[in-house]
Amino acid sequence: MLTLFDHGLSPFAQKVKMALLEKAITFECVVPDLAAPDARFLAASPLKEVPALIDGDVALFQSAIIVEYLEDKWPANPILASDPVDRARSRTVQAMCDTQFEAVVFSMTEFMAFKRAEGEVAQAMLAQARKDVAHLLQWLSAQLGPRPYFNGQNFGLGDMAALPYLATASLYKLGPASDSLLGQWFERCRQRPSFQRCQADAKAELAGFKESVARVQSGQWPRQYRDHRLDWFIRSGGTEIVTAGLKAGTIRLSCLPQIHTQG
Fold first, then answer.
1. Mean pLDDT, residues 43-70 taken together
2. C-alpha dihedral over 191, 149, 170, 224, to 10 degrees?
3. Which helix (H) or strand (E) holds 30?
4. Domain spans of the chain, in order of start
5. For residues 130 and 180, what is the distance between their CA atoms, to the nearest angstrom?
6. For position 36, what pLDDT does the model report?
7. Tens-digit pLDDT profile for residues 175-196
8. Domain 2-73 class?
9. What is the pTM assigned to this prediction?
10. Of 254, 263, 261, 262, which is closest to residue 48 (Cα–Cα)?
């Protein structure tokens, strides 16, 4: 049986979980302690991130790589369209959501949940985040067009990649208008059992969210500012916030992968 190292609130893990469920692949979920990861998790995820997947002797990390592996090894119930243009569109949506959209959602959560900063600076950066979400929704609307799914005629990778971010945007009252094509897509997709499972797991994680906030604020679980997250904070006026977090130990940057040799 496959093992998925998971966290219910991770949009990357949600995408992989939806892929596993849509393809009817049997798996078990393990939620690692990201503040004190054990050796088995670190061997599968050398960057100390979820998701990671173990399939026998194979260990994979990075959600985009994992879903491609699942598609290659289990071609039944495909999550990628047969048409090359539809496949390229889905991969483009995935790339944009996993970078630009994720960075904005992550940053909003930093202020709204983890109280990364308050006052005028926080309000200005949240205002910028709201503008960025609106812009990204317009971009996604253009990618969707009149199609029922980003994947084309069937639910697939592009939809799995976008759904977690649209769900969080809606939670923050920034979701698409219900009468828009994107809003209708969202309502259609959120009814899928695979996404409902992800939402249930996310809700379960929220039960202990206050403890997670305390661990972040105490420095036990520094939040990782990498790639587009760091880019968004810097260009949105948060350089001093990042510097203060690094000094206090509540923010960490990305790391080189740990090396595990097979004996």
1. 96
2. 110
3. strand 27-30
4. 2-73
5. 19
6. 87
7. 999 999 999 999 999 999 999 9
8. alpha beta
9. 0.96
10. 254
